[in-house]
Structure formats: C-alpha cells, structure tokens
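quick one before i forget lol
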Amino acid sequence: LITLSREEISAIPDASPESPVIIATGPLTSPGLSAAIVQLVGNEHLYFYDAISPIVLAETIDMTKVFRASRWNRSSIVDRRSSIVDRPSSIVHRPASGAAGGKTCGIDDGEGDYLNCPMTADQYRAFYAAITTAESATVHDFDKEKFFEGCLPIEVMAHRGEDTLRFGPMKPVGLTDPRTGRQPYAAVQLRQDNLAGDHYSLVGFQTQLKWGEQARVLRMIPGLEEAEFVRFGMVHRNTYINGPTVLCETWQTRANPALFFAGQISGVEGYVESAASGLMAGRNAAALARGEALRVPPRTTAIGALAFYVSHANPHGYQPTNITFGIMEPPPVGVRDKQKRKLAVAERALADLDAWVAQRFSPARENTPVENTPVAQGFSPAKNA
C-alpha cells in the first residue's frame, strides 16, 4: 500500500527498522526541514552552497613548468598511505551557512603537497585581464550580486581589485620556485583529487564562467597550456550533507540505521547519480523492513564507487561528485593507454556487477549483514568522526 501525501514536511518522521524513512528532498530543501536536519547531523555537516573547482587530467599538465611543494615546506599531518580507509582527496572547503569565521573556500591551509604553477608579474596581469573580461554563464552585476563570502567565484574576487587573487587563492606566500630560488609573484595550486592520482583540482578556483571561457582563461596558467579538463568549475545554491560524517555505504545514517538519505541532498551530483542513490536507499530500506541483508554493489562498479565516495571521502571540505572514473578503483597495473584503462575499468565493472547480482540469489547471502560498512563493523560516530 502506498499513501501519497502532498504537504510540507518540516520535521523528520520517526524511523524504525519496521518503518524506515528516506529523506530525498533535493537541493532546495525547505528551511523548516533544513533546521530539523541540522539538529540531526550538526550545523557543520549541512551545506547550502556547492562550490566546485575545475579538475584537470594529470598527464596533460606540463610538469617542466610546475613544482611540487606545500607552503613553508609543510607536509600533510596524516600519511594517506596509512589512513584507516583510502579516501579520495577533496579540496574545496565550504563552511556551513553562517560559519563566517571558517576557512575560505579552497584556500591552502599549509598542509599537504601541491603542484604549484608559478606566475611572473606579467603573466599574472595578463591572467587578471582575461578573467575580469571573460563571459559568465549568467550575467552578473558584481556590485549588486550577493555571494556566500566563504566561497566566492574567482571572477568575483578578481573584480574587487587587481591584487585580490594574489592575497587569496593565488597567494605565493610560503612558496619558493626551485628554478629561481625566489617566491613567485603569484601561484596557482593543484591538488590531487582522486585515489589514482591522475586528476588534479585547481584549489580555490570555483567559478561561474562559461565552460569555453574557463578553458581559454585557465590555459593561460603556466603548466596548463595543454590541459584537458575532466570537470569545469561551478558555484550554485544547494543543500546537502557531509556524507562521510553522516552516511554508511548503504545510504543509512550512522546515527540511526533506519533513517536514509538519497538524491542530491545525500552529497551526490547529477540526475543519474541521484536516481542511483535513491535506488540503493530504497532497496536497502525495503530489505531492512523485511529483515533481509542490506547490500551494496562492489566498489569496482559505478554505483558501488559512488556509495564508497559518499561514505568514505575526506570529510574536510567534502564536495558532491558525479560518477567518474576518478572515484573508481584504478585498473590493473600495466595498462598505460588512457582509453584502454577506461575500457578495462568498464569491463571489470560489468563482470563484477553480474557476479554481485548472481549472489543475490545465493542462499548463503540471505540474512547476512552488509559487508564492509560502518553498521556491520559497529561504527561509532564519536570514534570515527
């Protein structure tokens, strides 16, 4: 029996294993329900602005023009090779609404290694002129448009003055160009964006420029003249949770296994991804109500990789993602050609998905807790946050 009720929901209904609840209210969740979600997940884990920086393919970066370093030669506090789980690196920091005192969006905090693209004064001025005259995806009156101060589009920052970027995401302080032995006039930082290390994100370069304009302007950055963009930058109004601090791979909340999130509010990007998360949340909610095993496709599949990203990505500055090759497990060692690597990943995904579907009808799998999830392992938010 399905009961369709058309009314505003401003409070989260009680959820139990016999009557699970799925929250799938999308990117424009009402203020009332947003307040209820804040009570559940905490203000610091619910975001209202989605600021995404462009991502470039590593093999298209001219490594002769860039250098690897962190500010003041500091390296990451946590050795990623020894972390509890392999977590893709997220690079954009978005404070929750009202968190004006937080770090600005995408600014290097001095921890971790970056690829640095140094600029001379002439190169910087040419770049500044290009970005302040580039065409935006939407027409803005920069004096009247109101943006979230923690995540300003880079072109909006540029319109505030010629040196604004040099004291923001392009600040050179703490960096020494090994080729000159001096601090560059300005610098653009790239940070590894996936487990395989073949995607790099432009730190702090969230933007609303048209995609063609982004490609033209960003290729003026030394080292990116021939860059291939895996994803372009964007800034838009959104409402979504910090998945890694809130969700399991099953799209259950860690605080209450009978409560699920699905769709864009769960921290995914795109229609297909939202539908996929809804499919998995719905199937697992139904399984929970029937007392059956909750199941997630393998990480080698597109949906399984998305489930793992949503629940295991770096929670610091978490950003929603589409399904991309970058979030999937790397192909077998020895496959070098880019197209062959993608083909190998796709073929493996199809084979593993077939095997996973076949397992659904294996008697040995029935009434078995979902494997490799925080729920099955007795996940404690206090210990794992």
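fyi The radius of gyration is 22 Å.
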